[in-house]
Amino acid sequence: MSMRGAAAIVGVTDEVSPSGELPLRGRALEAKVFRDALDDAGVGGVRTRSATRGGGEP
Length: 58
Fold this sequence. Notes:
Order of helices and strands: H
Structural class: mainly alpha
Largest sheet: none
Helix content: 25-40%
């Protein structure tokens, strides 16, 4: 079975701070919220082949 061209929305997450300052930035923050979204969807720990990123810092 080929997964080529397949897509899914798997979960959501949010990172907030009372002061407005987050302890992580850039790619580290992206990686954390990506892992958190996978955990939210119940697929944490699953190897992913690729991920699309949008917005955020370069």
